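Researcher: Please generate the 3D structure of the following complex. Treat every line as part of one assembly.
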Amino acid sequence: EAGVVQSPRYKIIEKKQPVAFWCNPISGHNTLYWYRQNLGQGPELLIRYENEEAVDDSQLPKDRFSAERLKGVDSTLKIQPAELGDSAVYLCASSFGGRFFYNEQFFGPGTRLTVL
Amino acid sequence: GENVEQHPSTLSVQEGDSAVIKCTYSDSASNYFPWYKQELGKRPQLIIDIRSNVGEKKDQRIAVTLNKTAKHFSLHITETQPEDSAVYFCAASKITGGGNKLTFGTGTQLKVEL
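Model: Done. Output below.
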């Protein structure tokens, strides 16, 4: 079974430029998460989807970040315009959302963003 | 919101020794506590987790203990091996019907020396 797929793996851009990250979750996983991991820190949740609905986006900087999950499968996270402080690894994770059991989150390899 | 503190930030042990990493959490409603291992440049991977209705869980050389009263939980690795060297993250969550929001600690860099 394929794991969570993310692309690109690395991205270098200049500040004020736009950038987009793509995630394909594990087949059958209806819950998808986007995390940001700064150097030397743990991942921080940006947004969580249940199917195509964003159920928790309280940590997403909505002035410059946007996300979508079309048809409840793949997802795209966009930053426009990027700032120097956005340099980080952006991790996508997925889980099977069931009401009566605990849901392991499976992480993708991440996209390392460098903003110059 | 939930706040998770993790100690120590770095830990160096000799091969074969035990390693202990400790975490505290703030939200008494949290009921799920996973531990992730992240090797350099790779994705975090779940190594063990514990629910709030149990106090201890073991899986071969790895064990996790939970003290709900004190709101802290710990990861224990026995007979450490060089391949255990990595960053370990604890996390806390309240399980909801459709998924869970994990709040991570700041990580512990474990180095197992030969």
